[in-house]
Amino acid sequence: MSDDIHIDGQNEEMDFEREDLGAKPILIFLLSLTIGCVLVALVLKGLYSYLDTYEGRHQPVQNPLARSTTADTRIVEQGDIKNFPQPRLETDETTEINNFRMQEEQTLNSYGWVDQSAGVARIPIDRAMALLAQRGLPTRPQAGVAPPSDVNTAKEAARGADTSIKPATKKK
User: Fold this and answer.
1) Does a structural domain hold residue 54?
2) pLDDT tens over the chain, length 172 residues
């Protein structure tokens, strides 16, 4: 049998590592990491400062007829925003989208003229759906059938659009 198996559970070849990692290498690593981060931050601050002054020196000469009195063309005053052409950057996205949605809802759910000179009007969606359900979808005339005249079509449309309640007539 093999001599390296001991009955008492002790193996001389296998033992715990007695040397652990000390605190000094960890502290040196953390200190060098901190110094490296500070150096990178200082380099970036200097780079951004240099680029800002470079951009400031290379601004185009402002037209003497321009109304703005600021020398730096990157600064925009509140009144100048309306002078910019469309599309403009959004300043308050939430309010602007809510106003747009409210305007769209108002348009979709109200009566109004699309083109008054041509006689084209808009009606609310609910009313349009009810009329479509009542009248059905328009169909194409079948081949060989003469299309209806414009006068009769207009009369039928006017009769179908009349939703007023008519009084019942008495029979004699």
Assistant:
1) yes
2) 455 554 555 666 776 666 777 889 999 999 999 999 999 999 999 999 999 999 988 887 777 776 655 556 667 777 777 777 778 777 788 998 999 999 999 999 999 998 989 888 999 999 999 999 998 888 776 776 666 666 677 777 777 776 666 655 555 4
Comparing CA positions, the residue from 71, 68, 100, 99 lying closest to residue 81 is 68
- Please name the amino acid found at residue 9: G
Shared domain for 36 and 57, answered yes or no, is yes
**Nearest one of 161, 165, 145, 163 to 153, comparing CA atoms:** 161
- Look up the domain containing 51 and give its range: 23-83
In a domain, 169, yes or no: no
Q: Where are the alpha helices (DSSP H) in the chain?
A: 23-57, 93-108, 125-135, 150-161
* In-domain check, residue 153: no
As for how many domains the chain has, the answer is 2
As a whole number of angstroms, the distance between CA 117 and CA 135 comes to 26
- For the entire predicted model, the pTM comes to 0.33
- Residue 141: partners with Cβ closer than 8 Å, 6 or more residues away: 147, 148
Task: Say yes or no: 39 and 69 in one domain.
Answer: yes
Give the position of tokens 């800002």.
52
